[in-house]
Amino acid sequence: MPNTVAVKRFSAALERHDWNRNxxxxxxxxxxxxxxxxxxxxxxxxxxxxxAMIANCDxxxxxxxxxxxxxxxxxxxxxxxxxxxxxxxxxxxxxxxYKAIGDWEAAGTLVVHxxxxxxxxxxxxxxxxxxxxxxxxxxxxxxxxxxxxxxxxRWLERKGLRETYKDRYSExxxxxxxxxxADISDKHSLKNLLKKIKRHVLGEDAQQQDEKKxxxxxxxxxxxxxxxxxxxxxxxxDRRYWKLxxxxxxxxxxxxxxxxxxxAKQKRPDLSTxxxxxxxxxxxxxxxxxxx
Length: 292
Prior knowledge:
By secondary structure, the chain is mainly α. It folds into two domains: 5-202, no CATH class; 214-285, no CATH class. It has helices at 5-16, 23-31, 40-55, 73-79, 95-106, 132-137, 142-159, 162-178, 188-202, 204-231, 240-249, 254-267, 269-272, 277-285; strands spanning 68-69, 84-85, 92-93, 110-113, 127-130. The longest helix is centred in the C-terminal third of the chain and has 28 residues, at 204-231.
């Protein structure tokens, strides 16, 4: 098990957990008209699988989404000794794990994304995220869950591991892209749900992080535009109109100057493709009144 506070707290709660008293599992079994008591073999699978998911879960709030299980269901089955390989055919099966994941998804404790390979017509490896309801079933309130996640980020900062975990997540995404895993790139409703879960868990902290990312992104875009403008500076003998425009632009919102430049490109594309003084003169002469 990873040596982090988050994993230690969740695994400790899991060791004390009685699956027969889990409210979401209880409600699911009532809905399915099953016996209320979960059979001992299924409880053992629940316990081992939950422990494996907790160990492989992504608790880093800097990543795109929270609580992704960063390994396949096959790897989970292997870790808990439920992966069976047929000696003759090499076919791999892990039905108890697959059924347990289905139970938890139906109970509302997991988000599971599945997809079928169009060429082979076989199921791709699924992607799994743990919902806050899973931890609620273990006895953690939303406030406690938020505190654990925020403390995890502080732990990363204190240990100097934020960049390490950022690289780890980047490698995880690259590995998914190379593998036959269900893709979510065009699943906008799913991505919105995962973002909503993250905001719900982190509250104002998530909004502050999103705002910080937006500000950084805006600054990066402005820096790119500034570098492009500097690369198009006219020669020293032809700097008068460029200086006038640059002085005006520095005092305006980005939307105003960008709007003027876009209009110039549409009306005079012949000027926008060169960096001569005529282009800057054209812009200066069309500065809105009162914008000097």
